[in-house]
Design goal:
heterodimer; A: 161 residues; alpha/beta; Rossmann fold; 5-stranded parallel β-sheet; 5 helices; 5 strands; 18% strand; B: 398 residues; mainly alpha; 75% helix; 0% strand; globular
Chain lengths: 161, 398
């Protein structure tokens, strides 16, 4: 059994804990982190400064270096929390596309809700997780990063026709 | 992938300026007048660039990272507030280049180390490098150009722009809190230890404070405030030279000579274009007067032009047209050209088109997201800032 665990800053511990609990007998656990292309934001801001090319350093390179380091640190922390042998996978790009591609052929994908987590409902899924849940080519284990909201947050049932 | 980023734009602009002068597209008198007007601006700019560079050498930006990390304690909303405060002050005092080139990597590293998603914070740096560059003449090259053209003193410029500056930053903050609400809602323990706090860069802070006081003092007694910037830059560069943290060559490099040449050349090329019909064409659509509707119109036109061709040529085109209407109109142009570029990735369609043509896959940035944020933030910040400017003009006067 091959389990992919998608780790995002802020919510990753819940995914690791779920993988530890539910996929205990898994043959292979893959910890996946996708870097958002924020370095390109810095590059865009620098490109907007007309006339500076060659005179000042493009901040993009520095951000790429720092991004690689911080992703590695996050994966290290997650591996330590998992407490068993695992594979680490780092990707850069649109998170939802990279995760769906990485989940191809897997037996389980573990991920955390990324939306409004104050109430039960469809808004608890943000754009990226919604896309992955809709398009995942494998079974999905969707966890709450914190304790799930209680049932009182359910909307009232629609009126009977 | 090899990108032509190392090429200074001066390589293109300086020969272009030579061509417009030799072909007679601009008269020699006009070219000389333009160069004479831009000369002091370029000197001022060089001093501010040196000041920012040696603040970095003194460890000011490293210290900023430590302050933000400590104050936010891994809470994303607090980190965003800290980034807004520091990026606004650094942009205003040390210019937008300092925020883009020196502060952004520090902010990214701080977010990553705190276990916080970096995207809202990096976006904040890019937006504030534009929006927060309204306050002082030194905050943005566009301001330096307008400052020279407006005839305002340093202190009066700041007094008129402080309210628009605060309103624009406030509008951006509200938009950011809402737009990135989900990214800002979760935090996990950071993977790295905070480590020893770096020493306080007291010398750099005192020098910058004295330089700011120098701006006020020089403008009060009628001396060009560029001399105050020059003094501050010399003090920091001199200290770095004495302590062997810099060589004379790095000081010269910190003035960005190719950039300075580019600014002079661009000024002459734009003057040629303005002389050859653009002034007449734009004069038709530019609203006159300094009432609130006129200021809104001028700012909107400036923002649109900045998004088409980049804000530097936009301000060079619009300044001679608006200067006769008085400082109010000139400052409205600044609001447009400084806040406007947040609407388009890389600041303008011209830059984007150029990069698109040269490299199909130049960026992985989500252009839809970038533009949605810009469509919310730019009109809010721009309208608020123009109304604030109009109010300041009534209260402070010109």
């Amino acid at each position: 059994m091959r389990v992919i665990v998608w780790l995002v800053e802020g919510t990753w511990p819940a995914c690791v804990d779920a993988a530890r609990g539910y996929a205990r007998g898994a043959g292979e656990v893959v910890l996946l982190h996708v870097d958002e292309p924020v370095a390109d934001l810095a590059h865009g801001a620098f490109a907007g400064l007309l006339g500076r090319a060659g005179s000042e350093p493009d901040p993009e390179r520095r951000l790429l270096e720092l991004g690689g380091t911080s992703a590695a640190e996050l994966l290290d922390a997650a591996a330590a929390r998992l407490g068993r042998p695992c594979t680490r996978l780092e990707r850069i790009g649109r998170a939802e596309r990279e995760v769906v591609a990485a989940a191809d052929g897997a037996d389980l994908l573990v991920l955390a809700r990324d939306g409004d987590r104050s109430r039960l409902g469809p808004h608890s899924l943000g754009k990226a997780v919604r896309f992955v849940v809709d398009h995942a080519p494998c079974p999905v284990l969707l966890v709450w990063p914190e304790a799930a909201p209680d049932l009182t947050t359910l909307p009232p049932p629609p009126p009977r026709p | 992938m090899i990108r032509p980023r190392g090429w200074p734009e001066a390589v293109l602009a300086v020969p272009a300026a030579g061509i417009v002068v030799t072909t007679g597209a601009i008269s020699l008198d006009h070219a000389r007048a333009e160069a004479e007007q831009l000369g002091p601006v370029v000197g001022f700019l060089a001093a501010v660039l040196v000041l920012a560079h040696f603040c970095d050498v003194e460890g000011l930006f490293r210290a900023c990272g430590a302050w933000m990390a400590r104050w936010s304690g891994g809470r994303p909303v607090r980190l965003l507030t800290a980034v807004f405060a520091l990026a606004s002050v650094i942009t205003a005092v040390l210019s937008l280049d300092a925020t883009v080139v020196l502060l952004t990597p520090v902010v990214f590293a701080t977010a990553a180390r705190s276990g916080v998603r970096a995207k809202p914070h990096v976006y904040a740096c890019t937006h504030l490098s534009n929006t927060a560059s309204l306050l002082l003449p030194v905050s943005n090259l566009t301001n330096l150009l307008a400052f020279a053209a407006s005839g305002l003193g340093f202190t009066r410029f700041a007094a008129l722009m402080v309210l628009p500056w605060l309103v624009a930053i406030g509008a951006e903050y509200l938009v950011f809190r809402r737009f990135f609400a989900r990214d800002l809602s979760s935090s996990a323990p950071g993977s790295g230890e905070p480590g020893e706090p770096p020493p306080l860069p007291l010398f750099a802070l005192v020098t910058v404070a004295c330089t700011l006081a120098g701006f006020v003092l020089t403008s009060a007694v009628g001396i060009d405030p560029a001399w105050a910037a020059c003094a501050g830059a010399l003090v920091l560069a001199g200290r770095a030279l004495v302590r062997r943290r810099a060589s004379p060559l790095t000081v010269v490099k910190a003035t960005a000579p190719a950039f300075l040449a580019f600014v002079l050349a661009l000024g002459i090329v734009v003057r040629a274009v303005v002389d050859n019909g653009l002034a007449h064409a734009l004069g038709q659509v530019l609203p006159g007067g300094t009432g609130l509707p006129a200021l809104l119109g001028v700012a909107a036109l400036a923002a649109v032009l900045a998004n088409i061709v980049n804000n530097l040529p936009a301000v060079l085109v619009l300044l001679p047209l608006t200067a006769p209407a008085g400082p109010g109109a000139v400052l409205a142009v600044l609001l447009g050209v400084n806040i406007g570029p947040n609407l388009t990735y890389a600041g303008s369609l011209a830059t984007l088109l150029w990069r698109r043509i040269v490299h199909q896959h130049d960026h992985g940035v989500d252009l839809g997201e970038f533009t949605r944020l810009g469509l919310l933030a730019v009109p809010a910040a721009l309208c608020g800032a123009v109304v604030a400017l109009w109010g300041a003009l009534q209260v402070v006067g010109v």
